[in-house]
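Can't paste images in this forum, so I'm doing it all in text. The chain is below; anyone willing to post the predicted structure tokens underneath?
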Amino acid sequence: MRNAQREDMAERTAKIRNEAGIHCRPSAFIVRVVEGYQGRIRVISEEGDVDIRSMMSILSLGLQQGAEIRIQVSGPEEESMCSELVTLFETEFDFPPYA
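Text version of the structure:
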């Protein structure tokens, strides 16, 4: 993990609450939310430090229920984007089961 932090970035912590962790479907939803964002977004966990613009990057973190992450956002409306991402990562996704 990198320790360097810019003062002009928003940073928050989040705790994964989803019972199944952040798997493919939540990851795809999160990637859609950040699509087109003009700033920089990083998620830092015990497993690494990734840009979350791809589902594979999010999945590479292996985020299970109870894991804590740090979210860093720099760019336009960084505070609101960072808050929205905290909400998403802390969501208990309840996707309907496949038939």
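The domain at 21-89 is CATH 3.30.1340.10 (Histidine-containing Protein; Chain: A;). DSSP finds three helices and four strands in the chain.
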